[in-house]
Amino acid sequence: MTTDPRTGMTILDEDTCWSLLSSARLARVAIAIAGDIEVFPVNIVVDDRTVVFRTGEGTKLAAAVIAPRVAVEADGADPATGRAWSVVVKGRAERLDRFADIYRAEDLTLPDWTGHPKQWFVRVYGDQIAGRSFETAPT
């Protein structure tokens, strides 16, 4: 990891990025579809350096099938240390349709905050991951 002396922002290495992303439960998925970019909040879980989320019928699912290139972004803060972080993973989204993959996803600890039916799992295979950590401003 390196720190920019001008901003104090730390550029995170890949292992740290995955570790921080593993601590996140809420993220945003950005998808380019139909000539526009859509951003959706999703509950996530990291599984073997992939990101898994659950969704129902709609744009997120259609994008995973039609235009599977996505970005997943999550961030967090530690009030005790006064540091915050942000991680972005870019990669290929794939709707899980094999029973073995679905059963594995069902065994993951994947929260559902809305209670709406979400019968599909999507796994994002990241080929790029980047993150930053920085000191938060006093409030």
Describe the structure in your own words:
- The chain is an alpha+beta fold and 139 residues long.
- Helices cover 19% and strands 49% of the residues.
- It is built from three helices and eight strands.
- The protein has a six-stranded antiparallel β-barrel.
- Strand 3 (26-33) and strand 4 form a beta hairpin.
- The protein is globular.
- The two termini are 27 Å apart.
- The relative contact order is 0.25.
- The mean pLDDT is 87.
Average pLDDT number:
87
Biggest sheet character:
6 strands, antiparallel, barrel
Helix content: 10-25%
Cα shape: globular
**Order of strands across the widest beta sheet?**
3-4-5-8-7-6
Distance between the amino and carboxyl termini = 27 Å
Please provide the ordered H/E string of secondary-structure elements.
EEHEEEHEEHE
User: Number of DSSP strands?
Assistant: 8
Kindly name the structural category.
alpha+beta
Low-pLDDT regions: none
The total count of helices amounts to 3
| Gyration radius, rounded | 16 Å
Provide the β-strand percentage band. Answer: over 45%
